[in-house]
Amino acid sequence: MSKKKRGFGPKLRTRAGFSVRKRWIKIVSRMEAPHTCPSCMNQKVRRMSIGIWECRKCGFQFAGGAYQPSTKIGQSSARTE
Ligand SMILES: [Zn+2]
User: What is the CATH number of the domain that holds 68?
Assistant: First the structure.
């Protein structure tokens, strides 16, 4: 199994700020929600750690965005694998 870490995309620079905090809540709630597995299409993907996502259904593990499993960068690099 070859897993390589990809760039996590644009990392958010967390600076204390009102609007940033508001946005952060949005991001966190989205990141906590179940995501669709790209392998079995079940909504069982949970975030293991930053940029690492794992499907509870089929065990598929992949590197994605730091806060969401699929970013535009992630999708384009997934195609090349
Ligand atoms: Zn799966």
Answer: 2.20.25.30
